[in-house]
Design a protein that fits this description.
The chain is 36% helix and 28% strand. The protein has two domains: 211 residues, Rossmann fold; 60 residues, Alpha-Beta Plaits (2-Layer Sandwich), CATH 3.30.70. α2 runs parallel beside α4. Strands 5-6-7-3-8-9 form a six-stranded mixed sheet, sandwiched between helices. It is elongated and about 80 Å long. The protein is built from ten helices and 13 strands. With 292 residues, it is of the alpha/beta class. The longest helix has 16 residues. Bound molecules: adenosine-5'-diphosphate (ADP) and magnesium ion. GO terms for molecular function: ATP binding; ATP hydrolysis activity. InterPro entries: AAA+_ATPase, ABC_transporter-like_ATP-bd, ABC_transporter-like_CS, P-loop_NTPase. Keywords: ATP-binding, Nucleotide-binding. This is ABC transporter ATP-binding protein.
Length: 292
């Protein structure tokens, strides 16, 4: 679908991207993860042709592909209504007449703003503006949608709206690039992801592969008991007065805990498998939490 080769970009002396190469397959949601300043927006702007002075190569398998680009900064005319903003963007994409009217109403309904269509954007909440920002990017029915941090600072209802839209795009076979520094969003929405840090892709692949390769599973245990010596090395304090024990084979560790407790008259109150999270992958790759 899209192949990126050795992309580099500097803003004067500031190197924002260093030799980034990625392949993005058709019909998936591809996540770009990384802390602020990692280079996500720069990479996205290059793909969307907003930035044109860069080195490297961007190749689409289909040259005629229509792109819907949702920028990180909201780009709306505040003094116009939602409907007029959609008309404006629609005309930019060459829509007119009945087609433009029809698409405008469809998009208003899709972003949940039909009832507020007449109202000026400056009266909208942050979440409503975000939704309209997405609406403007999809008015021309692109099958490739790039979203740059579309859920920063919005209410849960708008987030749910946006997530439902993305699920619908996916079920229609659209390709999506989704940049975020919220790991749990990427984990929920994306099939594949790339971790970026300091302008480089640190690691990429399917979410499943990334979790398997970098994050160690663990178990949570709470109760009146002690931890056997062979598990104590990887044991740390967990929440609610329990313990977290990382183990490559968590089921065996659970079994070991149960036996040990029975033999030593301990009492287990809670014993759970803790699934590895993308957050752990990032930590294992960079040795730091997301700086934010
Ligand atoms: P992210 O989207 O991951 O936060 P960006 O691509 O916005 O990262 O930024 C990458 C680096 O490039 C940062 O160091 C940032 O300060 C710098 N940068 C981004 N845009 C500009 C610009 N227009 N002028 C100068 N430096 C920029
Ligand atoms: Mg950004």
């Amino acid at each position: 679908m899209l192949s990126l080769k050795n992309l580099s970009k500097s803003y004067k002396n500031n190197v924002a991207l260093k030799n980034v190469s990625l392949n993005i397959s058709e019909g998936i949601c591809f996540g770009l993860i990384g802390p602020n300043g990692a280079g996500k927006s720069t990479l996205i702007k290059i793909i969307a042709s907003v930035i044109q002075d860069y080195s490297g190569n961007v190749q689409f398998t289909n040259n005629k592909i229509q792109i819907g680009y949702v920028p990180q900064e909201i780009a709306l005319e505040e003094t116009l209504s939602a409907r007029d903003n959609l008309h404006f963007f629609g005309r930019l994409y060459g829509l007119k007449g009945a087609v433009l009217q029809k698409r405008t109403e469809e998009v208003l309904s899709e972003i949940g703003l039909t009832e507020r269509g007449k109202e000026k954007v400056k009266t909208f909440s942050g979440g409503m503006k975000r939704r309209l920002n997405i609406g403007c990017a999809i008015i021309h029915q692109p099958r490739f949608i790039i979203m740059d941090e579309p859920t920063v600072g919005i209410d849960p209802q708008s987030r749910r709206y946006i997530f439902n839209m993305i699920e619908k795009f996916k079920s229609n076979g659209f390709t999506i690039i989704y940049a975020s520094h919220y790991m749990e969003e990427i984990e929920q929405l994306c099939e594949e992801a790339a971790f970026m840090d300091h302008g480089k892709v640190v690691e990429n692949g399917s979410i499943e592969h990334l979790l398997k390769k970098h994050a160690v599973p663990s178990i949570y245990v709470k109760g009146r008991m002690c931890v056997p010596d062979d598990l104590s090395q990887t044991c740390s304090k967990g929440k609610d007065g329990g313990y977290l024990i990382t183990a490559n084979n968590p089921l065996a560790a659970m079994e070991r805990m149960i036996h040990f407790c029975n033999e030593n008259s301990g009492e287990i109150e809670r014993l759970e498998l803790v699934k590895p999270k993308l957050e752990d992958v990032f930590f294992s790759l960079t040795g730091s939490q997301l700086r934010d």
